[in-house]
Every structure is written in C-alpha cells, then in structure tokens.
Design goal:
Blueprint: H1 26-34, E1 41-46, H2 55-58, E2 62-69, H3 78-89, E3 97-105
Parallel strand pairs: 2-3
Antiparallel strand pairs: 1-2
Amino acid sequence: MSAPGRPKREYRSAQHEGTPVSAPDVAETLRSRLAPLAPAVLEIRDDSAAHVGHAGAAGGGGHFSLLIVSQAFSGLPRLQRHQRVLHEVGDLLPHPIHALSIKALAPDEFPSQP
C-alpha cells in the first residue's frame, strides 16, 4: 500500500500484461522474462513450503528467491537493479508470486566459481 499523497508504483510489463501463468510454470516464466537482462547467473528457489499457512500462500501465491548476476546491473544502485527486475516480472505479483526476494549483482560483485 502506498503512503497517502504518494502514487502507487506499478511495475507491470506491458508486453506480458494479462499473460496467465500457472504456479508450476513460475520458475520457467521467471527465466524467460529475465532473459533480456542477459544473466550470467540465474538461480530461482521456490521457498513456498516454508510459508505454508501464510495468507499469501493460502491464496495460491508462491514465495520465491532470485539471484541474478548481469552486466546490466553494473554501476546501478540496488533500488534501480530491483526496478529493472520488476519491470520484467512485476505483472506476476501478487499472483502467481506472492513474495519475491531479489539479489541482483553485477559480475564483479559475484564470487567466481572454480
């Protein structure tokens, strides 16, 4: 809910508006939607089982954690990184995604894998 006198922010992507997504397809939909950010690393975790009984879970919305590493985030503050992600997937909130934890990093911030 936005503060009084403050406009509500909308992060819905016009190109995906109204596209239905079933819960089992959420991870694949996230991968597809985030492809324009050319992620070097993209990890999606479904944390819904840890939130059973939560009001959002009862309504069918899932809880997801996202790690995305992309050159697109280089030089951007955290807020703008999250806005870039939400621009691509915002229409999935609040359903089929009730909660989305985002960790968005530039390649130089992500530890190298041996």
